[in-house]
Specification:
Belongs to the ABC transporter superfamily. InterPro entries: AAA+_ATPase (IPR003593), ABC_transporter-like_ATP-bd (IPR003439), MacB-like_ATP-bd (IPR017911), P-loop_NTPase (IPR027417). This is ABC transporter ATP-binding protein. Residues 5-240 form the ABC transporter domain. There is one protein chain. This protein is an alpha/beta fold. It folds into 2 domains: 1-74 and 167-241, Rossmann fold (3-Layer(aba) Sandwich); 95-163. Helices cover 37% and strands 27% of the residues. The protein contains 8 helices and 10 strands. The protein has helices at 46-53, 76-86, 102-111, 119-131, 147-159, 177-194, 205-210, 230-240; strands at 3-14, 20-31, 35-39, 61-66, 69-70, 87-91, 165-169, 197-201, 213-218, 221-227. Bound molecules: adenosine-5'-diphosphate and magnesium ion. Residues 46-47, 169 line the site of magnesium ion (MG).
């Protein structure tokens, strides 16, 4: 499969007077359809990296390619369109709109460019709500459901425009361990069913270990990068020695 995201020599410096380099010459690519996790200590630069990959933030130097198209030089309105069509975001703080229902929240990314939901989008929203197990509460207001259900609403919302990529920053950070495992299974299932590329920042080892690839960040650098399919051959190599 081709790469869907590529970063070439990406650096990020915060601050004008006191400059802090939080990403240092990062070179990394992600293959289409894979499930990737990013791990690293707090403050290592994970969120900065994810935001830059998702075009929410610009690199100070370096190039970003999404689906073969360079994005770091794009204008705001071009980026808006690219993001809305290609990338779904799931953050720990869901930013659901409490005065709208679960169903309306799921359709919100579509509603940004359209005044009325089409029948297709309504059908898709209902299918996604079925997939994430929220059909029963779809007409509840978004602040009238549990934390786990809010997380599921945010997942369905991230998928409404059928994005090629889902970027997720500590999606289960405030859920208990059972809910965490269930959310992970859900994301993995979506990855397998829809071939959506996932890049998930996590501090939860159970999520990281089940990904196809684990990227480790330390002090703004990639210090570890392991692919699951390479683990068995690595083990053979060790055994042969
Ligand atoms: N907007 C900002 N302005 C200045 N410094 C920032 C900003 N955002 C993040 N940082 C700093 O960049 C470093 C990396 O942050 P972040 O990417 O959020 O790390 P992580 O997600 O791994 O915890 C931290 O030292 C943080 O304080
Ligand atoms: Mg972070």
């Amino acid at each position: 499969m081709p790469d869907i995201i590529s970063l070439n020599d990406v650096s990020k410096v915060y601050g004008k007077v006191i400059k802090t380099k939080v990403l240092k010459d990062v070179n990394i690519s992600f293959e289409e359809g894979t499930f990737n996790s990013i791990i690293g200590a707090s403050g290592s630069g994970k969120s900065t990296l994810l935001n830059i990959m998702g075009t929410l933030d610009k690199p100070t130097t370096g190039e970003i390619y999404i689906n073969g198209v360079r994005t770091d030089t794009m204008k705001k309105n071009e980026l808006l369109e690219l993001r809305n069509k290609t990338i779904g975001f799931i953050f720990q703080f869901h930013y659901l709109l409490p005065e709208f229902t679960v169903l309306e929240n799921v359709m919100m990314p579509y509603m940004i460019g359209n005044s009325k939901p089409s029948r297709e989008i309504l059908e898709r929203a209902n299918e996604l709500l079925e997939l994430v197990g929220l059909s029963k509460v779809k007409n509840n207001f978004a602040n009238n459901i549990s934390g786990g259900q809010q997380e599921r609403t945010a997942i369905a919302r991230a998928l409404i425009n059928n994005p090629k990529i889902v970027l997720s920053d500590e999606p289960t950070g405030n859920l208990d361990s059972e809910a965490t495992v269930n959310i992970y299974k859900l994301l993995r299932g979506i990855n397998e069913k829809m071939k959506t590329t996932f890049i998930v920042i996590t501090h939860d080892n159970r999520i990281a270990e089940k990904a196809d690839r684990i990227v480790e960040i330390k002090d703004g650098k990639v210090i570890g990068d392991s692919f699951k399919e390479k683990w068995p051959s690595y083990r053979c190599l060790v055994l042969r020695m």
